[in-house]
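TL;DR need structure tokens for one chain.
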Amino acid sequence: MKMLRKTAAWAGVLLAAGLPAIAMAQDAAPTLNSGDTAWMLTSTALVLFMTIPGLSLFYAGMVRAKNALSVMMQCFTITCLVTVLWALYAYSLAFGPDVNLVIGSLDKAFMKGVGVDTLSGSIPETVFSMFQLTFAIITPALIIGAFAERMKFSAMIWFMGLWLTLVYAPIAHWVWGGGWLGTWGVKDFAGGTVVHINAGIAGLMSALVLGKRVGFPQTPMKPSNLVLTVVGAGMLWVGWFGFNAGSELAADGTAGMAMAVTQIATAAAALAWMFAEWMTHGKPSALGVASGAVAGLVAITPASGFVRPMGSIVIGVAAGVICFLSVVKMKKAFGYDDSLDAFGVHCVGGIVGAILTGVFIDASLGGAGLPDGVSMGFQVVKQCVGVATTLVYSGLLSFIILKVIDVVIGLRVSEEQEQMGLDLGLHDEQGYNLG
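>> reply
TL;DR here they are.
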């Protein structure tokens, strides 16, 4: 009996000693958070809302009436195409298990292993994958703004499919999927490099390879419906809260701050562009203030989880002025035909935001703080490396893809189709039937 009591006592001691370890193991296991999940479901819908209808309307109002339906058709088709490719293999390339810090493996191809109970942090992996899908959708859709009114629809489909595979997925992995840029310390909270610089430089390559629209710049090419453009800009603004605040992947204080600085930077950029245009041309324009707002949204994207309100005002003002100058001065100086200023707003705005993230992340300027042992100067260097890498890789690969497609099936519509307009020339429909 005495021996039994001793055995029981020692068993109790060992069990008590083991309980903390068991509890810690249980705490370490990922668990579903219903609040985070609800917020991410909402954010996913908001970001999809940015492409259709937000970006579709924004671009449709900026092109000539004879091409309005064609850009909406392109945005809609890209949404469908990218969704299918993402499920087949692109999600795995971007976010599958890392291979040498370069690309994700194909372990998650065909959404293998992504089930009802599979978690990514505190949310279902299905929600995480769909949230990231919405980023993969809007990024190639942004490129449309640079080649609008002159690319063949078939060429557009091939270009977007190849570009998603060879350009977007690798860069997304480098920054967000465990690749070398993110591991090294490049900060991109919601897509300054992955989305905006990436799309903007690809857009510039598209404009250069395709060449200018017939009649550009001598023939006036006025927007068909600026009411649609302003409505689309408003939808982009609202959807961007899911874009930036959703990138925290949780309903917490960082998400709240990301939403606040997004609003503040956007307003500051819109005013900065408006006043710059007012001083330059004598009158402010609706297109200008809407473009300024988008420039601010772009610039705050990489910084949104790292900066605070006063830093966001500086980022917004810088983006508004610099993007205005790039659209008005740089395009005219170099003579390229970026139809809807995808490069001037998204690439230039993304560069401004990415570099200033390295400045205003510093705790001394109110930011979230730099990693241990990293100075502001070194963080800015890291940001510049991220910018340069994206510019070179995306620019070069985009140029090669475009050239190959041009040789195989041709990129550009016929002059007759371009003069007729792509609505009728490619789709046998019209956006506006006015009698």
